[in-house]
Amino acid sequence: MKILVPIKRVVDFNIKVRPKTDGSGVDLDNVKMAINPFDEIAMEEAVRLKEQGKASEVIAVSCGTPLSQETLRTALALGADRAILIESDQELQPLAVAKLLKALADIEQPDLVILGKQAIDDDCNQTGQMLAALLDRPQGTFASKLAFEGGQVTVTREVDGGLETLRLTLPAIVTADLRLNEPRYVTLPNIMKAKKKPLQVLTPAELNVDISPRLRTLKVAEPPVRPAGVKVPDVATLVAKLKHEAKVI
Amino acid sequence: MPILVIAEHENGAIAPATLNTVAAAAKIGGDIHVLVAGQNVGAVGEAAAKIAGVAKVLVADNAAYAHQLPENVAPLVAELAAGYSHVLAAATSNGKNILPRVAAQLDVDQISEIISVESADTFKRPIYAGNAIATVQSSAAIKVITVRATGFDAVAAEGGSAAVESVSAAHDAGKSSFVSEELAKSDRPELTAAKIVVSGGRGMQNGDNFKHLYALADKLGAAVGASRAAVDAGFVPNDMQVGQTGKIVAPQLYIAVGISGAIQHLAGMKDSKVIVAINKDEEAPIFQVADYGLVADLFEAVPELEKLV
Questions:
Q1: pLDDT digits (tens, 9 = 90+) for B122-143
Q2: Structure ipTM over 0.90, yes or no
Q3: Predicted TM-score of the model (pTM)
Q4: At which positions is FAD bound (chain B) (predicted)?
């Protein structure tokens, strides 16, 4: 089984970003970037499947600027066999990324594509579903458990009311939820080994994909600021305030 | 052109988030049609026809649509979408699962979790875990949108009298099948719709200690939520998680107990009307968003609070 794992370079999850004063976007100058946490989980799952002998090859792919090479090296250090960067300086929206991944999947013919369920920057939660639609393959989104048997994958999904289990016919698309696994740490020897692994660079033009953004961002602004609250000395004061001042109980 | 709203339903009842989605559709303007897809959903269709402001209900009753498998439901929605200017669904796990698939089939972008309608083609949505609000404009012929329920006040579930039409189209991709589900049972109100939410974090120390929160919640008629730390530690099931990757709530009162207030948690609750934080660490970031903060040991404060309310 060949597995394709798309990964995205995003702002580190611990960083509280601020919109730029001109409203054109958020300020990412000199901000720590990292692999999207959900994609790290997707990569870990693929590597575990390889270690269990279920996967033959794990390919990491990223769409973005040359800086994404760094993120792909992290994926290689986590255990991917090779990496592909689809290089573009343009803003890439989920539909464009899904089309690029579809074009790549047509070439690589993976049996399984594991993505993160959402990127923590645009918070879209769309790419996996779109890719599944473009490839006309079944999708197992928000997965917290995978089990493979005879050309099928059983996916346990995190849904609003609890858990749901589906059976999909391979080839399929899976998006990883937080509870799918606990990603490993990259070790120094693995970082060194990753430097020697192949990293291929393609362009959207080579894949014959139109990546022009469809959605125009007019403005990015601060969310409304909550006025500062008060500290109360004891429970009795708290209850009194909730009853008489806020009138919520 | 009219607007199509995909109804969210379970166990033969319309889910509350559908009412918020219809409210968003009303803000866009135009006739509102509701699609009910599922198996044995006649009663849901009738309930949808009573929603205030709905002009027409389309019922697609077919075994292929049971459990809302996206491989089967998305082609149905994509086929119907041709006659509509907007296709809306609630940003629930179902809506998020199906709509991007519909959008890709229509070759249009999808707009996730809008919190306001500026005009028929311009919407606001939170990005970066709610730390920024983006205003986006779509030039797509059909706008495919998921709606964050807490951004819109629900329309009335009664009072409408829409015509009900059945849709015969059946799509069965045959590539996926439902195996089982394991739903958490609770007598408390549903988390995303509750007026009051009491949430616990790592400070609860173990699952058993959540009984203090359940006791307080029962007295307040509240739902109980949790931070990711509490879910990952196995204190409570994942469907109770509030945050960027869990549920988004905006109740009248949110009581955060033993929760530090990480960015990811705040993303799910900072639009609550009144926020109360109970934490023994007075430096905890949760106090920066709390209207009322109490620096105290939760194991003393929570039982006392339960006695006094």
A1: 999 999 999 999 999 999 999 9
A2: yes
A3: 0.96
A4: 202, 227-228, 241-245, 258-265, 279
